[in-house]
Amino acid sequence: MRVLAYRRLLVLSLTVLATLLAVPVGAPFATPVQAKPIEREHYSGADSGDFNCDGLDMHFEVTFSGLFMLKEGRKGDPTPYYFDNYEYHVVYTTVPDNGRWFTRDGNGLYKDMHITNVSGTIYEFEAMDAGQPFVIRDQDGNVVLRDRGRLLVRFVVDTKGDSDLSNDEFIEGSFELLADNGSHPGFYIDFCQLAKDLLL
Questions:
Q1: CB of 123 within 8 A of CB of 117?
Q2: pTM of the shown model
Q3: DSSP string spanning 6-72?
Q4: What distances in angstroms separate CA 131 from CA 32, 77, 84, 150, 186, one per listed residue?
Q5: CA distance 16 to 106
Q6: Which one of 64, 93, 130, 197 has the fewest CB atoms closer than 10 angstroms to its CB?
Q7: What per-residue confidence (pLDDT) applies to 124?
Q8: How far is 96 from 91, CA to CA, in rounded Å?
């Protein structure tokens, strides 16, 4: 999937960082934006792969779809505002497959709310993610964990001074949770420990 989503997604799924690169799903919420989109695209796809989650070798199969938009930066600034209305479904198994599996689903709306130039090409972002970005079900279909509501976060990015999101660099240690409205246990859990509990 496109690298555009990764800048914002990195900060919204820190608890599942090991699987984030394998499962490129976005998130967030929005108030109406007046600017005309500079890019708007419906997307869908599938991916699969293997990864190690704290000593547990795992395999994933993911399908995803949604609508993303980029809106022009404000007051002549080249940094675009990102919007993603997304959904995804992932099935996790062990490697080698022991016959056990669980799923992770999500759907929501992500939006950059405020972008502030800190200095040079360094920008501070406030972003919102609303919906059900994280639902874990065991192989019997029982909901083990469900996130719902709205998260408001702040993070800092070096945009390199252009509108190309693929070259953006997330500044380590800049992530801050500003508001947790609703219930978001998935934001705070140890994903790898949960995976071990469900797969072993």
A1: yes
A2: 0.77
A3: HHHHHHH-GGGHHHHTTS-----------SPEEEEEEEEEEEEEEEEETTEEEEEEEEEEEEEEEEP
A4: 17, 30, 12, 7, 13
A5: 13
A6: 197
A7: 96
A8: 15
Q: Tell me the C-alpha distance between 95 and 60, whole Å.
A: 10
The neighbouring-strand residues paired with 68 are 41, 84
Sign of torsion over alpha carbons 113, 152, 191, 183:
negative
Length of the chain: 200
- pLDDT for 89 beyond 50: yes
Residues 130, 117: contact at Cβ < 8 Å?
A: no
Report which secondary-structure segment, H or E, holds 132: strand 122-138
As a whole-number percent, the residues of the chain with pLDDT over 90 amount to 66
